[in-house]
Give the backbone structure.
Amino acid sequence: MLDWSHSEDAYGTYESSISLEELNDADVIYDGKRVNFTELPPNDYNRPWTVRLSTITEIPEWNLTVSNFFRLRGAYEQIIDTGRTEEVDGESLDVYDTARVDGAPTWDMRVKWEIPTAKDQALFVAVDVTNVTDEVNEIVSSGSTAKTTYEIGRQYWLEVGYRF
């Protein structure tokens, strides 16, 4: 299965808290100009596009299923506080800039083995590996400060069950 999506978001941020700078609508420097904090372009954490590809391979004689899920999310830009200040008319103003958040590839895999026990029933064991390549996808900022964070790395999940 191959899938593609394109999305846009009208909301500026998912944050529930605001800083003193935001509350007071302080002046800041953005794009070389002095502007009110509320005049900064809104951040849109929504990835502009995503492409997904799923594969499922079944090997009936071994009661084995191997599934792969590949995803590539598009890059986007985000407004961040650089941590720098500039003196303007004797006033120290925070400097904001645009930072690029790169595209993010991921590959997840699931291997499932079943032991048939009765008609339409089976004992099964499944292992999920998320982020198989352990790709480090950076996120430029968390909130309005220039702080690099990372998406979750590789994880393993084990599921044991009985299907009936």
